[in-house]
Amino acid sequence: MNTQHSKTDVILIGGGIMSATLGTLLKELTPEKDIQLFERLSQPGEESSNVWNNAGTGHSALCELNYTKEGKDGSVDITKAIHINEQFQLSKQFWAYLIREGHIESPDKFIQSVPHMSFVKGEENVEFLKNRVASLQKNVLFEKMKISQDPEKINSWVPLMMEGRQSDEAIAITYDETGTDVNFGALTKKLIANLQQKNVGINYKHEVLDIKKLNNGNWQVVVKDLNTSNVMNYESKFVFIGAGGASLPLLQKTKIKESKHIGGFPVSGLFLRCKNPDVIHRHHAKVYGKAEVGAPPMSVPHLDTRFVNGEKSLLFGPFAGFSPKFLKNGSYLDLVKSVKPNNMITMLSAGVKEFNLTKYLVSQLMLSNEERINDLRVFLPEAKDEDWEVITAGQRVQVIKDTDKSKGQLQFGTEVITSEDGSLAALLGASPGASTAVDIMFDVLQRCYKSEFKSWEPKIKEMVPSFGLKLSEHEDMYHSINEEVKKYLNVK
Asked: Who contacts 457 (Cβ-Cβ below 8 Å, separation ≥6)?
């Protein structure tokens, strides 16, 4: 086993959409920096960013009901919905810039227009949906959203969902043509191919074993080449840990104070995938329903048109599963190894609090195929067992951390952890991560490159014109930027 030493400016750990986005931004803003990326697998975008492991929804709150909260007086809080939509607008602007400048090409290989829809049953839920739409439509970001209870209109949008449906049940559906399906695995591959052309060191089959702070303020990252078993020590001024479920164990190795009192809870997912080309062809939408009581937000049921390598697919789910692995290609000891003296009380507190979640996961694990098909029939009354197969989606590790309010709070979003001096950042958590990657990476850059960021802003605004502004408060700007985005990404 040989040990070699090397110096660099930036180390990116993980070959997914987050590292690919951060690397691309850095190469645009500061091309002179030397960057090395390390990925444990043999190619990029194979874990959380993979097309089968990721919902592919351009998360923009057009259909996801869990991004709006209903008050007791019937009012609907749309703050989070606007924020998430604004974040996705930044991603689309950045991708359009990359297409325009010739850094990546063929947008149809990673993004497609697919209507986003919300679907509810029952008078109470219909009333909520009407109130939600009424609140959202006042905002320019949601101005194209429609709602209908008319069976004929709904049939024109989603004919398969109306076949065999009892006419006496109260249902309502929204429709927004500006929705998208994004293949984040394909996009990741494009971004990393672009980075390779710009002399970024892309190292596959390389596993990070350790991360230590040096006396000079830099980081020593110990990396093993899985092909040769050689071990190298890299010294870097900045380290980004964007390794999906593996981010937490790697963050723990840094021993920074920000890594304490944080735990992770792995949740896996199963989907039903349609095998009947006629059924796939007759549905064209991402239709999101309401989560069951006690279900985590990432378990909102959805009937989902996807585009995989140019072919149309149809999925339904997710059905939650459990595996102690932190990655699909991880170890069964991942969860146990992540429990440390500093986070044991945090983890135990979450266990006590999240009894409903545990109960929900157990009930999901007990589901038979017939029961899964019955859940699908809420969306597609005429669904046939033989048309569907079960596939395993990716692993997600939900963050557990102590907050000002209490110990062991389970977080259902994306968390950026940075060291006090800004020399290291780690990304933890799950949805809507991939869709909001550009905004999250701007956050990382602002926190970790404070002295340089101000000088980068003119270039940032060239790449992402609305940076620093809220498009929801600048209607004319939204419309002009959106025309450019539609032109270069070829979406509605």
From this structure: 467, 468
